[in-house]
Amino acid sequence: MRITVMTTGEQIITLDVDSQETVENVKALLEVEANVPIQQQQLLYNGNEMRNSDKLSALGVKDDDLLMMMVSNASSGSNAARSDLGLNPDGSALNPAAFQQHIRGDANLMGQLFQTDPELAQVITGSDLNKLQDVLRSRHQQRSVVQRQKEEELALLYADPFDVEAQKKIEAAIRQLPCYLFVSCLTFGCCLDTCEQKGIDENWEAALEHNPEGFARVIMLYVDMEVNGVPLKAFVDSGAQSTIISKSCAERCGLLRLMDQRYKGIAQGVGETEILGRIHVAPIKIGNNFYPCSFVVLDSPNMEFLFGLDMLRKHQCTIDLKDNVLTVGGGEVSVPFLQGYKLPSEKDLPSRFLDEERVPNQASSSGAAVPSGSAEKKNSTVASPTSQPSRQNTSEGPEFEAKIAKLVELGFSREAVVQALRLFAGNEEQAAGFLFGG
Known about the structure:
Region (Disordered): 358-398
CATH class of the domain at 223-358: Mainly Beta
Structural class: alpha+beta
Helix content: 25-40%
Family: Belongs to the DDI1 family.
Main location: cytoplasm
CATH superfamily of the domain at 223-358: Acid Proteases
Domain Ubiquitin-like: 1-76
Protein name: DNA damage-inducible protein 1
Strand order of the largest sheet: 6-7-12-8-11-10
CATH topology of the domain at 223-358: Cathepsin D, subunit A, domain 1
């Protein structure tokens, strides 16, 4: 139905609304049309104030009825102070510089913007006010389109079922449904690829909002150990069937002379790597205790030492992710997992352990080692850490420095900004979201 609203400034606004619409939604439309915030609006019908929760039909509002809109001045002092933060009818800011400064000063709001609207957040952290105005106008147009679509969908619900044009619009709307309504989609010949992509995009947006840490880089589990008296950063991997040491690491630890070459073979999994032999027993130190350990020696220069499932079981180890510790011997020893996302002065892990491209993928948890030689034909299965999708190393050139400068302007230290950018492979939006959330 159509209603007419007259403002105190004698401005006349005509709205097409549904009779079941709430007063609050009518005020939202008037906020766009009359540029008056909802909080300042007071709607009157037949001299009586209309509450936000009331529906038009319940108040007796009918087609072509007249409403009066009064503008409340109760907060005129605060409104005057914030007048520069208002928006024009086209969605642009009345005072873009004041608007930008106000948003920048709200850390929580900036954090939300970086998660929900990275483009707008990027413009606000920049210095181009014209671009800021363009983005604000674009967002206003998008909201207007969405509002019109909602109004059209609402009109279709009450359309004449025998109206051919209305039925065509209903068919077009059904074609845009997501694929969990695929029965209707197939009835009208929906393009399933389009629906699937829409579902993927919606799933991605939901993940950004509710599970942003899922996009962060995952640091693997490392602990400090000593192998034959030599300190090492040991990679703890319960998916690897055997404990693995590289040839170079075994030589550095003085264990290569104990390698039994009768256990040569090939470790097969995601790829292949050569098994040089086996060291049957050597001492390792975890915390203040010593434990016997056996190793499979691989020709893998990218991986030094991997503490696998065989020794985890033998020494009754527990991977406690809640307290971020590895317990050994049923709880007699507890050592913390090393961190790689702290500031440089606090970092436990060397940078080479954080380079995901260096993680070996020659053998997986299902990989089998085929030993050779005439002695004891035993099958030994080994595994190496599952590699994550590789990232290109971020070039710390002028572009990287520009990103640092923008984030430092928001009040963060340079060290924290550099670490966040490296953590997210140079992605400025994700780094800013991480800094605001931390």
